[in-house]
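Here's my example:
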Amino acid sequence: MQAQATGQTIRYMKETSYTNGADWTTEGDDKPEAGFALEEVDVAVRKVAVWAEVTDETLEDFAQIRPYIDQKLAFMLRSKIDSDLLNGTGTAPQIAGLLGTSGVQTAEMTSNTALEFAKACMNAITKVRSVGYFNPDTIVMHPNDYEKLRLAVDGNSQFYGGGFFQGQYGTGYNDPNYLWGVRVVQTTAIDELNLATPGASNKGPIVGAFKMGGAVFYRNGLSVESTNSDQDDFIMNLTTIRVEQRLALAIYRPLAFCRVINAS
């Protein structure tokens, strides 16, 4: 979810638990009361930025260089945002990412196989539904982990997820971007799960109700600015191009997320 930040700090209520008191009533009866355990949380709006210098001659002689630099710097910025929305430490000036949020659930593997990995992902999906009470919409997974699942085969050497051109045993081809019916987003910003060496710190994909469980608050849009007056740029015929953005992350319900761990 995306929202607009209006100041330097976002204050929101993080839900740690609730009691669903909804029930049927008859005329004149007292109505059932719901119970909420809420925790007030403040998160600071942080700035992420990057810049580069280019000579005036290069800008004059190569018309395509300016949009190339603008897009490249914007890509660098968005890549850093994607990474720290997951992994940010929360130590200023870095934002606090989802994976370090207290209260996020875990689903542990019991053996070191791709099949057990897939089962743990299903367990994480179930935990988001049964404990978090939200329907998961996304699995964030390292590309190498997704490859392990796509290349896993059964006893007849048939791919569980379907072959190169069709599904298992000649059936229709499965959509390659889904696992257990949940959309998969592949990114190197999340750790790869090590099937060979289990341990409590061996963590992989995270399953979550991302649209309901949290929100990214943007203070401003991504800005691209340039100047030839920075330091000695004017004398040296240089132009400095800067790209930056301010944002914060709020996790409303940590139980809406569950991470797969190979601790077997």
Observations:
- The two ends are 34 Å apart (CA to CA).
